[in-house]
Amino acid sequence: DAGVIQSPRHEVTEMGQEVTLRCKLISGHNSLFWYRQTMMRGLELLIYFNNNVPIDDSGMPEDRFSAKMPNASFSTLKIQPSEPRDSAVYFCASSPIAGGLGEQFFGPGTRLTVL
Amino acid sequence: GENVEQHPSTLSVQEGDSAVIKCTYSDSASNYFPWYKQELGKGPQLIIDIRSNVGEKKDQRIAVTLNKTAKHFSLHITETQPEDSAVYFCAASRDDKIIFGKGTRLHILP
C-alpha cells in the first residue's frame, strides 16, 4: 500500500480564495483525522471521522472550514474564504482503530500559504 | 478537557548519550499514550505507545514509562544516533479524543 496520500503537497493562494485539500486513506482503515500544524500551536486535531461519519469537529476553527468524506477512502478539507492566518501544514491521518486509541498513519502533509 | 504538557521544547545530547522527554496530562480517563517522531518534511510516525494497564514498555533503544497516579509519562532513548534527530510528540487519548503535546526538537550532536 502507498500509505496515506495527500494533495496538493504545496498550495499558495491569495486571501479570499477557496482552498481544497485532499486525502486518500489507507485501504481498510475506517478512521480519518485532519490536523493543522503551526509553530505557535503545534499539532491540532481539526476533525475526526469514523466510518465516514464526523464524530468530533470541535477543533474546526470556524465556519470557513468544512470537511467531508464522500466515500470510505477519500476526504476533503475546504477553506472558504481563506485568510493569511490559515497558513500552516495540514495533515490527514488514517487508522484501522476507531477513535484515538490506535496507531495513526499520517500523510506527508499539505503546506498551505495564504498571501 | 485534556491538556498535554511536553518538556523540554528543545533538547541537545551528545551522540551515544541518552535523551529523556517528559509529558504530563490532565484527564485521568486517558488510557492510551503514543509517541510520534516527525522528520523534516514528513508526517509524524508512531515509534512506541503504551496503554494505561502497563507501566513500562521497551523496544530496542526506546522505552516509555507511565505513572498514572502522577499523570505523567516519559520517552527514553538510549545510545542516541544521528538518525534520532527529529521532533518528538507525545499524546494522550481516551475514546474519541487525542491531544498532542507541543513537541520536542531533539538534536544529536556529533
Task: Give structural notes.
The complex is a heterodimer of chains A (115) and B (110). Helices cover 0% and strands 54% of the residues of chain A. Chain A is built from no helices and eleven strands. In chain A, the strands form two sheets. In chain A, strands 2, 4, 5, 6, 9, 10 and 11 form a seven-stranded mixed β-sheet that branches. Chain A is globular. Chain B has no helices and eleven strands. In chain B, the strands form two sheets. In chain B, strands 2, 4, 5, 9, 10 and 11 form a six-stranded mixed β-sheet that branches. In chain B, strands 1-3-8-7-6 form a five-stranded antiparallel β-sheet, with no helix packed on it. In chain B, a hairpin with a 4-residue loop joins β7 and β8. The mean pLDDT of chain B is 94. The interface between A and B is medium-sized, with 23 and 24 residues.
Rounded to the nearest angstrom, the distance between the terminal CA atoms of chain A is: 36 Å
From the structure provided, what is the oligomeric state, counting identical versus distinct chains?
heterodimer
How much is the radius of gyration of chain A in Å? 13 Å
Let me know the number of strands of chain A.
11
Number of helices of chain A: 0
Q: Residue ranges of chain A: pLDDT <50 for 5 or more in a row?
A: none
SSE class of chain A: mainly beta
Mean pLDDT of chain B: 94
**Structural class by secondary-structure content of chain B:** mainly beta
Task: Give the amount of beta strand of chain A, in percent.
Answer: over 45%
Give the strand tally of chain B: 11
Work out the largest interface and the residue count of each chain. A-B, 23 and 24 residues
Helices of chain B, by number, come to 0
| Helical content band of chain A | under 10%
Mean pLDDT across residues of chain A: 93
Shape of chain B: globular
**DSSP strand content of chain B:** over 45%
Spatial separation of the terminal alpha carbons of chain B = 41 Å
Largest sheet of chain B: 6 strands, mixed
